[in-house]
Amino acid sequence: MRLVILGGGESGVGTALLGKKEGYEVFVSDFGSISEKYQQVLIQNEIDWEQQQHTEDKIVNADVVVKSPGIPDKAPIVKKLREKGVKVISEIEFVYSFAKNTSVAITGSNGKTTTTLLTYHLLKQGGLDVGLAGNIGESYAKQVAVDPEKLFVLELSSFQLDGNINYKPHIAVITNISPDHLDRYDYKYENYIASKFRITMNQTSEDYLIYDADDQAINNWLKNNKTKAQLVPFSLTKTVENGAYLKDNNIIAMINNEEITIPVNEIAIEGKHNVKNAMAATLVAQMMRVRKQTIRESLSNFQNAEHRLEKVAKINKVQYINDSKATNVNATYFALESMTAPTVWIVGGIDKGNDYDELMSFVHEKVKAIICLGIDNTKIINAFSPIIDVIVEASSMQEAVKLAASAAEEGDTVLLSPACASFDLFSSYEERGTQFKNEVHKL
To answer: Which parts of the sequence bind ATP (predicted)?
Structure first.
């Protein structure tokens, strides 16, 4: 069997290792360049590879092609493979047949990384043999090659779900849905929503779908479509029977008549959206029989991902917060919602078709100055100049942090929450966040 892998990053190289172990003839092809680190892994494992090109003859003769989630379906090589009837799948789909244990899969426009990390933390503290993969950490394929018996918690993007055919998680979580990546879905929101719900398409009545019952897009889909999974809702606004809800500032989570109560003020991460993330993770932990006491303790000692509402430092009584991972408007909405002090907001980058209207009330109420950090800031300036007097542009992170520091007064917060992708000035949101932290520490 010939396995061709398009993309030589973490996901692609991990898939190559698993494919080799399972007896496939493996070829890795990357249209860009493969990093030195991954080249070494391929060479050491005697796996055939190429970079800066796709040699068609070596690709179209594949029995199965695994493509990196970053490569769009519109890419010429993918179109060519589909024309020839070659199966093109995701890493997750490929690995699924070799994993010996069930998985927990988490998707959503926002909150999925926090919810994935939190779920993993709860299950690990609960003594389960658990791994963390998908859109986060080491690849699922590489980890299953080493330990196929583990239970995995997977963070899945819509791009990863698009390449799944038979993959089925035992427990699926949809944190929320808001417009994102519409450039990959013909600018049709319904296509993106359908992509997210692929997480439940193969689930049976033995499986579970945990979802935000306050989310309009999710409710609409469930009203008009069917899933065989048992539905487990969570909500901040209404009481639910089998699921989680809020009562007197406590989370009440009920699964199979087993109830747990968690005071919201004991959760380590702040903000309404994180109450929802905690609800989702708690429900998974209950299903996996983690003890109540362990769940409570784990929620109180959890540390969130870097670049996600990360408190960097307090300088001259001004709090600096790094939320570089907020690459869309909805993520920034949650960040602004959780601000309690007057805020100097650093925003901008590559716009993904953003609509800033939903931020207006928070900006009006909480933001005192805006620092635009992008190559083209016209849209941001046009959106907010009617309500914010101080809007300035910066062409580097150093300049942005200095401008923010001079605009901020004692008791204020400086928030980097860009609402945009980072690729105009930075290689990734991680690099953007790291530069922010470095510049803050230089103040």
So the answer is: 108-114
Task: State yes or no: 223 annotated in a binding site.
Answer: no
Domain boundary among 89, 111, 127: 89
Cα–Cα distance, 68 to 72 (Å, whole number): 9
253-304 pLDDT tens trace: 999 889 999 999 999 888 888 999 999 999 999 999 999 999 999 999 998 7
User: Is 15 labelled as part of a ligand binding site?
Assistant: no
Q: Which two tokens stand for residue 139?
A: 């690849």
In which band, very low, low, confident or very high, does the pLDDT at 318 lie, cut at 50, 70 and 90? Answer: very high
> Which pLDDT band, with edges at 50, 70 and 90, does 37 fall under?
very high
Q: Distance between CA atoms of 224 and 190, rounded to whole angstroms?
A: 12
Handedness of CA 109, 111, 117, 123 (dihedral sign): negative
The dihedrals phi and psi of 83, each to the nearest 5 degrees, come to -60, -35
**Does pLDDT of 165 surpass 80?**
yes
Is 166 annotated to bind a ligand? Reply is no
Q: Which of 302, 266, 257, 262 is nearest to 282 (CA)?
A: 262
Mark whether 370 and 246 lie in a shared domain: no
- Structural element, H or E, at residue 28: strand 25-30
Q: Is 311 marked as a binding-site residue?
A: no
* Spatial contact of 174 and 218, defined as CB atoms under 8 Å apart: yes
- The pLDDT, as a whole number, for residue 168 is 97
What CATH number corresponds to the domain at position 19?
3.40.50.720
Give counts: helices (H), strands (E), the chain: 17, 20
Both 102 and 158 in one domain: the answer is yes
Tell me: is residue 9 an annotated ligand-binding position. Answer: no
In a domain, 228, yes or no: yes
Q: Let me know whether 279 and 318 are in one domain.
A: no
CA distance 398 to 387: 26
Work out the pLDDT band at 246, boundaries 50, 70, 90. Answer: very high
Residue 337 · residue 272 · CB < 8 Å: yes
Residue-number span of the structural domain to which 139 is assigned: 94-300
Say if CB 357 and CB 407 are below 8 A apart: no
